[in-house]
Amino acid sequence: MTVSRVINGNGYVSHSTRERVLSVAREMSYRRNALARGLKRQQTETVGLVLGDIANPFGAELARGVREVLTARGYTLFMCVSERSAREDIAAFDTLADHRADGIIVATRASKLGNDRLAEITEMGIPVVLIGREFRHPLADLVTADHLRGGHEATTHLISLGHRRIGFVGASLSNVSGLKRFQGSVEALREHGLPVDETLILGSDGREQMPGYATEEMGFDCMKRLLQLREPPRAIFARNDITALGAISAIKSAGLRIPQDIAVVGYDDIPLARHTSPPLTTIRQPTHELGKLAAQLLLRRIESREPPRREEKILDCELVVRESTIGAA
Amino acid sequence: MTVSRVINGNGYVSHSTRERVLSVAREMSYRRNALARGLKRQQTETVGLVLGDIANPFGAELARGVREVLTARGYTLFMCVSERSAREDIAAFDTLADHRADGIIVATRASKLGNDRLAEITEMGIPVVLIGREFRHPLADLVTADHLRGGHEATTHLISLGHRRIGFVGASLSNVSGLKRFQGSVEALREHGLPVDETLILGSDGREQMPGYATEEMGFDCMKRLLQLREPPRAIFARNDITALGAISAIKSAGLRIPQDIAVVGYDDIPLARHTSPPLTTIRQPTHELGKLAAQLLLRRIESREPPRREEKILDCELVVRESTIGAA
DNA sequence: AGTACACCTGTTAAGGTTAACACACAGGAC
DNA sequence: GTCCTGTGTGTTAACCTTAACAGGTGTACT
């Protein structure tokens, strides 16, 4: 009835009526029912963000970017975590679809099962945007950082410092971003005529279950194994900063110095990276931008009458040189 | 109609009918509408978690504990972030209330405005459980770690190592947990007849806005100021591990050694703490347990017919001694 | 035969909201 | 007087699901 007009502030309502409605509403501590509203209006002004590892500051920053754009446009963000398995991914997609989220942003690792369900959901007409996840679909946009170039730059940096034996910590076949970083690294080696020594490439050892998000634990373990080699690498490229921190820890506990004995490059430029000892050379992803862009693309999809042309945006990364690669001060 | 019975698996449905329904459902890629369902059933099997800083691994671990319990019982967890202001807190509460979440777990800092709205929501009959947030209400349960004792233990540890000038990094009047840690610390000093030197207590300097979650930036800044004192402290108790990392960074960039020149104790025992250099002595909170317990208390409230008696659980912390306080290997 | 019960299916209404429409009145323009 | 427009209010139906009930068939037991 007239109440709706008051609550939503559209249509004509006389001042006195409005006051009366508001006062009664206050008195009975009325809250409008978003379920009924969504049901009727066929839109909920709600967006779901599916994150993998929320312990990684990278995910936090991503969420921040997404939220910034969404709240400015009046949307609510609900975050779902899916850290263990494709099953959790699917559960998150289903829940968001069931609750009629207006759109979904997905930043978890790809998996066969997950992608299949994602395709279904996309085809049902729910706008979907991926962040750094391998899933191509004509109805879903994709944003990602240029990990190929990032990996390339990181490695080129090490090569330019004279390193010839470069270890890779945190290799993973199932994570696209990680894989691209690795590929970029290999390309750089090839370009400089350096051999790719497989004994220097360590990852999660097959015992990788779905989480596979690289942890400091993993960095620590891999680095320890590298140090046990007859001729350990003199430089390390880690799949991300968290992994790099683990590697640094392992190097130090072996009594070696960074960068004099072993140089380390990370990836992501998490806030902590500038405060490690030594401060970590790393590849900065435009994390915040990625989140904002994903949200913008999603809103474009949500608010346009018919499905817009698919967008795939690849943002540049940037090498940030700190003291973990060049001795200093 | 019969469809509902098939979808929900209750009531009698013949095999053939069930198959027919399922096949049609698949064909039209039917998804049940959680809005309509929630509207009709007056429950959504959905719980909201309001987190402050999701970049802090502490929040991540908390969420993990909460989720573990909820999913096992068939509930869905939606996370909302409120990192900047009391306004965001309120927005999150409102959204969750509007969407008829069955219950809300709140782990953000207390604020006058936020608590007022929380009281309203609680009194509307929505189950609420607080984690480490100062908000007492007969209808809301509270779980927290014993920060008073934690702060006491950390400081006692430093005193037992012979320290007499102990700095406190990250003081904040507006954060209860932080405040308790500080109080515990002061009590320990008093018990040992040591003076409380206010020049050694640094926080966010009044320029604290709502976020106030202590960052490594803050730890770095405070520590730098402490080092500029005529007689800097020889030991530091940081409000949390992230802050401690910042402090460590500042100490090192001043060319001092840990723990020989300055000992450092953190708080939380985040995964990274064992991988810093040197590994960080810290107070371990039963983070995962806190999350689980909060979820259990919430479910109790949700599922009991009439409001149960208020529970307030205080879990013990534990000192984890590592090399940032006692020189070693 | 009559009664009880298990099994299966359909009808109705309600949950809270809003789009669409209908109506009513006032004031101004012609 | 008629028409138009702006303002204010009310009615209806629909969004999709499910609780409650009603009704049907068939089998088993007394």
Distance between the termini of chain A: 72 Å
**Order of the strands making up the biggest sheet of chain A:** 2-1-3-4-5-11
Helicity of chain A, as a percent range = 40-55%
Helix tally of chain A equals 11
Tell me which oligomeric state these chains represent.
Answer: homodimer
Largest sheet of chain A: 6 strands, parallel
Low-confidence stretches of chain A: none
Number of strands of chain A: 12
- Give the largest interface pair and sizes: A-B, 57 and 57 residues
Mean pLDDT of chain A: 90
Q: Tell me the Rg of chain A in angstroms.
A: 24 Å
List the SSEs and their pairings.
2 copies of one chain form a homodimer.
Chain A: H1 2-8, H2 15-27, H3 34-41, E1 46-51, H4 57-72, E2 76-81, H5 86-98, E3 103-107, H6 112-123, E4 128-131, E5 140-145, H7 147-160, E6 166-171, H8 176-191, E7 201-203, H9 216-227, E8 235-238, H10 241-253, E9 263-265, E10 282-284, H11 287-303, E11 312-315, E12 318-320
Parallel strand pairs in A: 1-2, 1-3, 3-4, 4-5, 5-11, 6-7, 6-8, 8-9
Antiparallel strand pairs in A: 10-12
Chain A binds a DNA duplex (30 and 30 nucleotides) through residues 1-5, 7-8, 11-14, 17, 32-33, 35-42.
